[in-house]
TrEMBL record:
Residues 9-20 have a biased composition (Polar residues). InterPro entries: Aliph_Amidase/BUP, C-N_Hydrolase, C-N_Hydrolase_sf. Residues 98-368 form the CN hydrolase domain. Signal peptide: none annotated. GO terms for biological process: beta-alanine biosynthetic process via 3-ureidopropionate. Keywords: Hydrolase. Belongs to the carbon-nitrogen hydrolase superfamily. BUP family. This is Beta-ureidopropionase. The keyword Hydrolase applies. It catalyses: 3-(carbamoylamino)-2-methylpropanoate + H2O + 2 H(+) = (R)-3-amino-2-methylpropanoate + NH4(+) + CO2; 3-(carbamoylamino)propanoate + H2O + 2 H(+) = beta-alanine + NH4(+) + CO2. Residues 1-20 are annotated as: Disordered. Its EC number is 3.5.1.6.
Length: 416
């Protein structure tokens, strides 16, 4: 935990008057921790209520972290936090408690290191974090987007395609051992090389069952062409629809990264019955940080499911400078991946975020009964007008579509 920074003669933090390069916020690992340190307990309690909401009318409960996980966190210097989402007690159903883990991490070696060394180093870096999740009794674990490589999709250089691997390849095999060891479902987002279809490359999440089996996979639906994110150089829009995977612990979907900006993408996973939707991502502060705490939380509310948002950390510098086509000078990095992984619940509550600048493991107990309770409370499914949306969309995709605009008949009439 951070400590308060020295205050200068003007009453300001020494860190607040300069731009930091370590990814912190005025020397703090997150906004939540900055506020917690800066405000009195009474004021912080009220700010926290407004910032992260209330779960079943109460402040979100922290979970006790087991000593094994604490030790691994201390030894390997990663952030670890744990919380519980409750649901109201029901008469006809027992609680359905699922323990979910999210892992965020930076790369382990410079991008100039041999590719095989880079991948092996990331494996070794994640091992103690996954062990901490296993020791904590995590049932479903999700890693960040393309966790097994640097996020090189800004460079347009094809050599980074060498990191692509089959769905049942090295990264999946590495995680299957943990799935069997800890009886844990693992969501494994990789750069996939489809050997059965001409070695086409996809951005894919492989779902590994708690017995180490492959349940299935989902390929990223929406590909960004924004700023440095030139991802269509490497892979195109996925072809798997919006699958929901029924696991031993609940029904899960995976909305990969840029898909979080598309409300209908979130909706489709909900219509297919998802209870938890993971959003493994790689996004940087200058581009998206104000949107990060809003979109997933809104999706959880609108679709009555839990959302686990994961973002990598660190600044990845590449050997050859590149440009974005946006008029900025050439540069050799994306900017800072700001971490801040968190969980959002259907009742509008959410966890505090993990660190902006450290590897981390976020553990959340969630009672999946809360999903149906919020459906019953708000009735979004019953009050939605899907037939109107279906008609609108069927007309919109046609070349002769005309928007439904009714103009004021006096709008363009000349008056004397």
């Amino acid at each position: 935990m951070e400590t308060k920074k020295e205050v200068n003669e003007n009453g300001n933090s020494e860190d607040s008057s300069r731009t930091l390069t370590d990814g912190s916020i005025c020397g703090f690992e997150s906004l939540y921790r900055l506020l917690q340190s800066s405000l009195s307990p009474e004021i912080f309690k009220e700010v926290s209520r407004l910032l992260i909401g209330l779960n079943c009318g109460k402040a979100l409960e922290p979970l006790t972290i087991v000593e094994t996980a604490k030790g691994l966190s201390s030894q390997h210097d990663f952030d670890i936090q744990a919380f519980r989402f409750n649901a109201d007690k029901e008469i006809l159903r027992e609680p359905r408690i699922v323990r979910v883990g999210l892992i965020q991490n930076s790369i382990a070696l410079p991008t100039t290191a041999p590719f095989l060394d880079q991948k092996k180093a990331i494996f070794q870096k994640l091992k103690p974090i996954i062990d901490a999740a296993g020791a904590s009794g995590v049932n479903i674990l999700c890693l960040q987007e393309a966790w097994m490589m640097p996020f090189a999709f800004c460079t347009r250089e094809k050599r980074w395609c060498e990191f692509a691997e089959p769905a049942d390849g090295e990264s999946t095999q590495f995680l299957q051992g943990f799935a069997r060891k800890y009886n844990m479902v693992i969501v494994n987002p990789i750069l996939e090389r489809d050997l059965k279809h001409g070695e086409t490359i996809w951005n894919t999440a492989v779902i590994i069952g708690n017995n180490g089996n492959i349940i299935g996979k989902h390929r990223k639906n929406h590909i960004p062409r924004v700023g440095d994110f030139n991802e269509s150089t490497y892979y195109m829009e996925g072809n798997t629809g919006h699958p929901v995977f029924e696991t031993a612990y609940g029904k899960i979907g995976v909305n990969i990264c840029y898909g979080r900006h598309h409300p209908l993408n979130w909706l489709a996973f909900g219509l297919n019955g998802a209870e938890i939707v993971f959003n493994p991502s790689a996004t940087v502060g200058e581009l998206s940080e104000p949107m990060w705490p809003i979109e997933a939380r809104n999706a959880a509310i609108a679709n009555s499911y839990f959302v686990g948002s994961i973002n990598r950390v660190g600044t990845e510098v590449f050997p050859n400078p590149f440009t974005s086509g946006d008029g900025k000078p050439q540069h050799a990095d994306f900017g800072h991946f700001y971490g801040s992984s968190h969980v959002s619940a259907p009742d509008a509550s959410c966890t505090p975020s993990l660190s902006r600048n450290k590897d981390g493991l976020l553990i959340s107990d969630m009672d999946l009964n809360l999903c149906r309770q919020l459906k019953d409370k708000w009735g979004f499914r019953m009050t939605a007008r899907y037939e109107l949306y279906a008609d609108m969309l069927s007309r919109y995709v046609k070349p002769d579509f005309e928007p439904q605009v009714i103009s004021d008949p006096l709008l363009h009439k000349n008056h004397l």
